[in-house]
Amino acid sequence: MHWCRSFIYIVSLLSLLGCTTATLVQPYDERLLTGSEQFYRNAATIIEHSRSQSPVERPTVEDSNHPGHIANMDNLYAELLIDTNILLLRALANSELVDETGQRLQSKITGYIDNALPSNCDNSADDVRAEFSSLTVKNFVDLKCLVVTWQAQHEAAPGKVLTQADWSRRHLSLIRFIVAVQQAEVAKLRQTSH
């Protein structure tokens, strides 16, 4: 999510500076905007269904027959990961449009952000994120990391079952993330209309 906020700041700053001769950020992509809305719809539906299947209190023993057990939700996580991959592939499709100046600028900003804010990714995923110079791509890598983190947390939960409160917290973090992604894309749209 921190990539998204930073991206908005970059686009706003570049707008104020009047930088139009270089391609410093990926152009607005309506499919990323509508894709993130669709991802939210699918993920929120899964979260609400899962919340309704989950207990209020943490279970004390593992019961793989419980509808909220990780074994009964693997297909839902797989669905979310496929959806994040679709968005990531779309973001990658336009990443080469950022010119060398933009890549250098984004690299410096990335270093600053990485030092100031933690990522959703573990160390191995951070290595993957480092391969991309595009902040837009990194936003969607972070979205995938969020889903991977959720799955790992579910696997590690007592009884391998999350509570209703766990799912509610996930919904709030999903909303924050999608709003930030959408703000970044809308900021790019505003930049192109000036």
Automatic annotation (TrEMBL):
It comes from the Bacteria. PROSITE patterns: PROKAR_LIPOPROTEIN. Keywords: Signal. Residues 1-24 form the signal peptide. This is Uncharacterized protein.
